Structure formats: C-alpha cells, structure tokens
Amino acid sequence: MNKNYEFEYRQYVIGGVAVLIVIIYLIRLFTLQIMSDDYKKNADSNAFLKKVEFPARGVITDRNGRLLVYNQHSYDIMVVMKEAKNRLDTTEFCNTLGITKEYFIKRMNDIKDRNKNPGYSQFTQQLFMSQLTDEEFSIFQEKMYRFPGFYVQRRSVRRYTYPNAAHILGDVAEVSRQDIEDDEFYMPGDYIGKQGVERSYEKELRGEKGVQIFLRDAHGRIQGSYQNGALDRSPVAGKDLTLSIDINLQALGERLMQGKIGSIVAIEPSTGEVLCMVSSPTFDPRTMTGRNRGKVHSALAMDPWKPLLNRSIMGQYPPGSTFKTSQGLTFLTEGVITPGTTFPCSHGFYHKGLRVGCHGHASPISLVPAITTSCNGYFCWGLYYMMGNRKKYKSVQEAMNTWRDYMVSMGFGYKLGIDLPGEKRGLIPNAEYYDNAYRGSWNGMTIISISIGQGEVNLTPLQIANLGATIANRGYFYTPHVVKKVKDMPLDRKFTERHYTKASKKAYEYVVAGMRGAVTNGTCHAANRSDYEVCGKTGTAQNRGQDHSIFMGFAPKDNPRIAVSVYVENGGYGAEFGVPIGALMMEQYINGKLSPESETKATAFQNRHITYGARNR
Amino acid sequence: MEQGTDRQFGVLRSLDWWTVGIYISLLAFGWISVCGASYDFGEPDIFSLSTRSGMQIVWIVTSIGLGFVLLMLDNRFYDTFAYIIYAALLLLLFATIFNPHSIKGSRSWLVLGSLRLQPAEFAKFATALAIAKLMSAYDFNIHRRKDFLIACSIIFAPMLFIIAQNETGSALVYLSFFLMLYREGMPGSVLFTGVAMVIYFVVGVRYADVPLLETPASVGKFAVMSLIQLFSAGMVYIYCKNRKQAWNIILLSVGITMAAFLLSKYVVPFDIVIIQIITTVAIACRLAYRALSTRIRNYLYISLFVIGSIGFFYSADLILSKMQSHQRTRINVLLGLQDDLKGAGYNVHQSEIAIGSGGLKGKGFRNGTQTKLKFVPEQDTDFIFCTVGEEEGFLGCAFVLSMFLALILRLIKLAERQPFKFGRIYGYCVLSIFLFHLFINVGMVLGLTPVIGIPLPFFSYGGSSLWGFTILLFVFLRIDAARNMARK
Question: Nearest CA of chain A to the CA of B72: how many Å?
C-alpha cells in the first residue's frame, strides 16, 4: 500500500473549494435570475421588436354635440440609428425635408443623447421629425428608399374647429422626460395632453396602444411574428369627451372680453356643469398644433398679459361686494341678525374712529335692501357683531373660525376640484392667520373689510360663479366640471354629489330677494328683463389702480338655468362692465341667441377696450 | 474467452454506477441545452444530422460507445502505455501547430476527411496518465526539487504547444494539475501564492476603474490591498499558530481603513488606498521584526509574501498601463482574457441578460428568446450555460451545478479509495480538470471570471471535447473498477 496519510486531509480542502465555488455561483444565479427584474425587461427589449400601433385619440364635442377637437393624420419620420449609420446622402436628405445640415446633425446627436432621449436604442425607431403634412410626406415617401434606416410613422394631430376655448381644451405635445419616467405607457415621441381637458382626461382620451410583436435577432433582423401573433393587440381608440361647455356661449364670452383682462364663468346650477369659462386674453388653439407649437407657445409665454394663464381658475381676486351675499347668509344662519335687524349707515360705517365709506341710501337699513343697494355699512356691522358676540362665541378666534367654516362650506378657500389642471384655492383667512398677522391682538374692527369682500379674502372667478350657483340652488352646489360625459363611462361620482353649505335654506330666500331687488331697482338694473327674472349682485373691488368690475348672478330666479360670474380687471364699477356682460351671457344661454339690440350692445362691448399699463400681470 | 467474459462481467459489477448515472444525466441535459441553443426558426427536426442538435446525438452515442470500449480494455494498459500515449499526443500537438487549417485564427484543429478533431482535448488525458505514472514511481518525491520540476515540465510541455496553436484558454486548463500536486503534497503555500497572484491581477484589473462608494479610491486596488491584509493575517494564524497576532493585523487594518474611508467620504476626499499601502507595509515590517526577534522563519516568509504581493500587483498594473492598447490586447489574449478583460464586453453582458431573463423556472425548452435569436455569441459552445439559465431557469441551473458538484465529490471519493498512487493521482487530475472547466466556464457566463474560451464538460457542442472528457472519465472508471483486483 502506498497511501499518503499525511496529506489526506487535503481531499477535504479540494472538496470544500468545489462546494464553495458552486455555492458562490448559486448565489450569483439567485441574484441574476430571481432578485432582479431588470434582466428580464432587458431581454424583452433585446429580442422583441414591438411595433406600436397608435390609437386614435378621443374627439371632443360641446354640450350640444358640436365637434370641437378631432384628429387628422400626420406623419412622423423615424430613424433606426444602427441602419442609418454612414449610409446616408445627407445633402439630399436635408433638401428633401427642407432642413439645414446643422439641424440634421444636431437632431441626430440629440437622439443619441440619453439625457435628452432616455429610451434611446440604436436598434429601435427613434423620432427624427414630427408632424409632416400630407404634402411633405408625399415628397419624402418618393425618395424614402434612398434613405436607409428612415421610416415613416403615421400619427394623428389634433385639429380644432373653433378658435375658442383654448384654456379648457388645452393641447397635446410630445412627452417630456418626466412623463416617460412617471408612466410606462409613454415612449419618446409620444404625445400627451399638456393643458386643459387634454391633460386632465389624458387617460380616457389616449386609448390603448396596439402592439405587434416580432422576434428579431442580434442584428436587428425580423425573424418572424412572436407566437404567431397570439400576443398582438389591436389599438383601442380613446374615449370621446362631451364637454358641458356651450361653444356659442363661450365664443360670445370671448368676444365680449376682447381687449379686457378678466374672466367669465357660467355654471348650470342644477348639475354643476360649466357652461363657459372665458379667460381673457386668450389665444387661438389652432395655432398650438403642428411643428410651430413650440414657437407659438414660447411667444405666448413671454406675453406680459399672460394669455396662457387660465384666470377663471388660476386668478385669485378680491370678490368685492358679491361676497356680501355670503355674509348675509352667515349672519342670518348664525342668528347675528334677523331679517328685520337694521343697522345705521349714513354714507358708511363709522365706529371707534374707523370709517368704511358707502354711497347714499336710506338708513337704517335691513338685510334685503342692504344687498339691493350694496350697503357696506350693514355688513360691516354684521361682522362686527358676530366677532364681538361673546355670548355665542367664547373668543374672537372661535367666532372667526365659525365664520371660516361657513365660507369653506360655500366652496371658498380650497380648490373646488374642477376637472382642469392648475386650479388655485383662493384665500379665506382663519383665526390663526390673524393671530400670526396681528400677534394675537385683533378683533372684529381689525378685519372688518373682509365682510365686503376686500382685505385678505381672495376668490377665483370660478368660486364666485359657484357662489352664484349655490344661491340659485338655495343652499347647495355640485363640484363644477367641464366634462359632461366620457363615452361609455359613468361620470365621476364627485361631480354628482351635492355639497350643502352651512347656511340655512331660509336665509337663502332673503339673499335671493336682495339679489332680485338689485336687478329690479338696484345696482344691477341694467340686467333687468321682462322675459325672465334675473337675480344679481355687483361688485367693485378696490385695488391699486382702477377698481375691478364684478358681477355675480343667476337666472331665472326660480328653477335657475345659469349662474354666471364676470370679472373685468380695472373695469371700474360693477355696473360698468360686469352687469351688462353678465346680462348678455344669460340672454345668450337662456334664449339661445341675442336679440338685435343686444347684438349691437355686444359689439359695442367687444370694441370697448381697457387701457392697461405695460406692467406684468 | 471465458476469462475475458469474467473480466468484463467483473468490470461491470465493480463499476461505479453512480458516476455513470451522473455522466448520463449530464449528457442528456447537455443535449437538451444544445437543442435550445442551436434551434433556429424554421428548422423542423432536432434529430436531423444537418442540425447541431442532431450532430450532438452522434457525438453522444459515439462517446458512450467509446466509454464502453475503454472499460473493456485491461486496466494495466493505461499504466503500461502512459508515456507512449503521452509522447504520441505531444507529437500530434506539435504537428497540429503546422497544419494549414486554421479556424478563426486557431491552429488547434486536425482535419481528417470530414472529421475535425482538436488534439488538445485528448492531450489532457495523456498528460494525466503520464504525470500519474511519473509520480507513482517508488522513488518519486515531490519535495525533491528535481522531481517536482520534472512533474512540472510534463504539465508545461503540452501547454506550450497549445499556446503555440493560439488556444491559450485550453492551455490554461493544464494549470488545474497543480490542484492534484497540492493533494500529493506540494506545499499549500505554493498553490496559495499562485492563486493569490491570479486573484490580485484579475480583481485589480477588472475593477480598476470602478470608484469606491464615490471616493477617489478604485475598488480594484482597494479590494487587492484588503485581500493582502486578510491573507497575511490568515497566514500568520495558520503558519505561525499565533491567533493574537492575526487578530491584531485584522483589527489594525480594518480600523485604519474604516477611519480613512470615513475621512475620505465626509471630510477630505483622497485615495484611501495610499493609507492601505502604508498600513500593509507597516504590517510587513512588523512581521520581519518579529522574525528577527523570535527567530521563527515563517514570519519572514509571510513578510516577503506581503511585500511581494504589493510589488507584483503594482508592477503588473504599471506595465499594463504603460503598454499601448494593441499590446495590451495581445497580453489579454495571451492570458486568455480575449476581448473581455474588464467584463463590460458584449458577450458577458448579453449572457447575463439571457440568464437573468430566465427567472425561477425558465422560459421552457426552446423558448429562450435570447439564445434562439443569437444574442449570445458562442451560445452552443462556450456560452451554453446561458441557454440552461434562460430556458430552464434557476432550478435548472441549480440542478446542473449540483450534478457537477456531485460528480466532483464522487470522483474525490473514488480517487481516495484507490489502492495505488497511480489511480489516485490520475483521479485527482480528472476531477481537477472538471473543476477548472466548471469554475471558469460557468464563472465567465455569470460575469465573475475572465472570459476564457473553454467548454463546459458534457454540455458544450462539439465532438472533440465530449470525446476528450469521456476518455478522461472512463479511463479513471476502468482503473477504479480494478481497485479490488490487486488483492485477488
């Protein structure tokens, strides 16, 4: 026997090494195959060529079925870098497309730059140039065989029938890098809604992409259909939208607001549907399509009048005297006043050296005539007594927060939740706000101006219109929305739910009476008509420079069909712009057209421009 | 005649059927993988001889036949003719260098009519026989320098010829014989030093450009310096039996490195490898001083190992960085690293993708999109394990790896039970070769070891390698089957 006992232990060392190697490899396999999903995705993009078929985006109509936005074919030029490399007569290519060589080089470099184009792969089609017209396409197609690696992808572009409602409709544009990261649906070169309902209803409008899966080898050559097309999907068209907007009303509103900065919002009180939403200045949505979108967009963005801003939901303004209605409702419901309570007002509210001016009317005065004549004094006294009522409220803070609760219940101070992007919440101060502002030392006198819609209070024009709708409904509102129906889908439940305010239904009747009085023999007299009963309230908001002209109203008084708010920046008294514009809007909607006299009046207002300074707004 | 029948019967009775079973199941799984890897669109018949899967069946059947024939030969045949077989293969290797049929720059093919063979695959078994014969001689002593050098030259001769054929990868396989030498008494420190140098080089070069957690240090250098410190502690523990000293080295190294790292990351960014070098040199000086004060020579050797390690790593790094890129490529080719030195290359990346996409259960037989669509080069030969990973998933890979492990452990058991040194040495040669192939081939597919173009035994497509591995294994099985005859 020739055994080597001395080194026999080494069999275990060698065996141990073998075991160790296998264990290490198993751990590595485990991390590669089970811990990580990346490789799987990588493999799919490696081997599968997914030919995407784009769905048609949903079309958009107004509440009466008039077509507002539809699709038209356009063509995108796509490039596969791997195939295009060094095989292109650049000069001829550039001439065919009418682009410069510098642009070509820049574009090719941008495509390869993963910072700008995160989904880049040299094997897949990348967007080279978008939205060719039919004409440009036919020129290119003739020569396409000479440009290896370039393909044409049929897409659709948005077309607009009317030059109106740009802010509501919004627009589509190529997805940003962020969009791609946020949602796996998108690939570079896809389109996405950027503003308006195009954005808020993107998921409904975009539909589902179809896909045909091909297998390809390492050289990018198509080897066949994957599993005989069992996994292929046809595209599903996007869902059509019916807006609650009446495009004729919208067009009239835009016409009336020409040359003025401001907003008109009309709501159908019984549903919360927004009938029109004018933000002035506006722009023609038809200019925001095609390859010039970028240029037009940046020009609009530079405009000092900020036409891109949707003032109806983004502008936060003092509501002025239209706010008095909400105060009357609060004071009545809280028992601070009764319908018979009168307060003295001889040209204003005078107390402890503080003076809030008012115009001439009978004194003392009760709630209904106070609304009718838009008496400042009455509401100042009301707030003063509410804040000072220590029997009901332990402190001014408690009184203030009770007040705040009323305001919030009416839809102020928070976003209403309209189905458009970018809504602002406005401002309703609370006790804490004033504690911070005045270091805890404040009372009803300090904050008196909020009772007449001045001071810290800010509302969006939409919130003012919604106040009108709430009064029209005598105490509740539906969340305003611009989309009446998404095809084959029920309306979001949040738009069919009634929101009751804290004010009592009885209180509303007094406020309605006051607003009716304002039209029959008060500040809104110009809106009075014989065919239906209009209720209204003017507002004149003080600010630096000329006052803002405001109107809030609804019609008819019983079974109201439309509530409207008009806000004209620096328009002067409420009666000057607000009332007549509001009256025309109501007439248009209720009668379906304007009478010849009203038409003349409308033209006159269309041409009455307000001179604004050059300062940014 | 009667005697012959008896012998054959005896062989089959004392044959290690466990090993045969593992061999057969590996062949079967290997064939499935080749089918998956070479399957193409529109190829209807996997058994057709025009396909690689069909051809592989031919190789498998002939291999089994070959194995049977080998079992029928007398066990003394291998012992007796070991040197002659070795000399013949050496001659064949030498002749192949000058043959005109080069395939992809490799001159390793011998073309006989329609048959193409790679003599390098058969030289492994010849070399194993020769070295077993040499070392089993009564007067052979591995600790005698002359004997050790003769053993080494038996290993190096075929290596040189194979390198001359531009098949460095296959040549490197012969290094696995050192594992056998280790079992036979070669000082572990020799094997360890060799392995350590290879690790330094591969780790250092491969991760040279990876920054360590956003500090200026490179992961490659950091890892190598840490390894040197770890090795020195380990050697002090093992060879000087001084546990306290070993712990001191570890604590000192870790403490200083951590402090330097925190300082570098949060205060002043600097290359913490410099601190590591200073620490390591200090450790070496301390060990040298200890060698003088205690007169234990092992401390001195360890100190030299530490200094030598740093010297080797930095000189290799320096030489590599000074060279021009085409020279570097040649070095890489010479080292068998081919074009994938930094592991960032196409092959490995694609093979990781293919394996990773397999998941737990794999995509199923012939459903692997990566391999089927030829994303992985050499997918039915060197990168065959990708196909296993993609189509059979983690479970399939785990099964294959455990079968290989079972084979190697079983071979260790068989080798240890040999009554003669010849059988044991030959057995260790066989299992070392299998282990080396498994280690390098699966490792490179998983992106862990350098890409060296050697096949995975029983899996990779090809007749020569399959025959070669079969011969290696069945000669040993034949020797093992005769283990009890000596006593009769």
Answer: 26
Q: Does residue B411 sit in the same domain as residue B284? A: no
Does B198 map to a domain?
no
Is the backbone peptide bond immediately before A556 cis, with ω within 30 degrees of 0? yes
User: How many residues comprise chain B?
Assistant: 488
- Residues B124 and B8 placed together within one structural domain of the fold: yes
The 10s digit of each residue's pLDDT in B273-292 is 888 889 999 999 988 998 88
Taking Cα atoms as reference points, which of B364, B374, B469, B465 lies closest to residue B56? B465
Whether residues B27 and B139 fall in one domain:
yes
* 8 A C-beta contact, residue A234 and residue A257: no
Do the bridges between strand A67-79 and strand A60-61 make them parallel or antiparallel, or are there none, so unpaired?
A: antiparallel
Residue B215: phi, psi to the nearest 5? -110, 165
**What does the DSSP 8-state code read for residue A184?**
T
What is the spatial distance between Cα B214 and Cα B357, in angstroms, rounded to a whole number? 30
CA distances from A193 to A601, B184, B461 (A): 38, 76, 55
Q: Which tokens go with B94?
A: 């030498």
Token pair for residue A2? 């020739």
- Give pLDDT tens digits for A58-114: 999 999 999 999 988 888 888 887 777 666 788 888 888 888 888 888 888 888 876
Cα B442 from Cα B438, distance rounded (Å): 6
Phi, psi dihedral angles at A92 (to 5 degrees): -65, -40
- For residues A66 and A68, what is the distance between their CA atoms, to the nearest angstrom? 6
Query: Which B residues in the span 439-458 are in contact with A, Cβ-Cβ below 8 Å?
Result: 439, 442-443, 446, 448
Q: Are B276 and B258 in contact (CB under 8 A)?
A: no
> How many Cα neighbours within 13 Å face the side chain of B138?
1
Nearest of B122, B124, B133 to residue B81 by alpha carbon = B133
Residue A230 Cα, gap to closest chain B Cα (Å):
15
Each residue of B116-157: pLDDT tens digit? 778 888 899 999 999 999 999 888 888 888 999 999 999 999
How many other C-beta atoms lie within 10 A of the C-beta of residue A81? 18
CB burial class (10 A; 0-12, 13-18, 19+) of residue A343?
buried
Which residues sit opposite B115 in a β-bridge? B112
Cβ pair B142, B181 in contact under 8 A: yes
Q: Is residue B52 part of a domain?
A: yes
pTM > 0.80: yes or no: no
Please name the amino acid found at residue A212.
Q
In eight-state DSSP terms, residue A56 is P
A22 CA to chain B: closest CA distance, Å? 6
- For B386, the domain range is 2-181+341-456
Are B376 and B432 members of one domain?
yes
Q: How far is the C-alpha of B127 from the C-alpha of B154, rounded, in Å?
A: 7
Please check the confidence at residue A39 and state whether its pLDDT lies above 70: no
ipTM metric:
0.85
Count of CA atoms in the C-beta half-sphere (13 A) of A378: 30
**Using the 8-state DSSP alphabet, how is residue A55 labeled?**
P
Does B187 map to a domain?
no
Between A and B, how many residue pairs show a Cβ–Cβ distance under 8 A?
135
Same domain, B393 and B264: no
Q: Which residues of chain A does B442 touch, with a Cβ-Cβ cutoff of 8 Å?
A: 25
Sign of CA dihedral A11, A17, A21, A26: positive
- A11 and B136: CB-CB below 8 Å? no
In a domain, B477, yes or no: no
Separation CA B130–CA B136 (nearest Å): 10
Q: Which of A10, A19, A30 sits opposite B394 (nearest CB)?
A: A30
- Tell which CATH classification among 3.40.605.10, 3.40.710.10, 3.90.1210.10, 2.10.10.70 matches the domain A247-300+316-607: 3.40.710.10
- CA–CA separation, B362 and B359 (whole Å): 5
d(CA B362, CA B415): 36
Give the separation between CA B409 and CA A20, rounded to whole angstroms.
Answer: 12
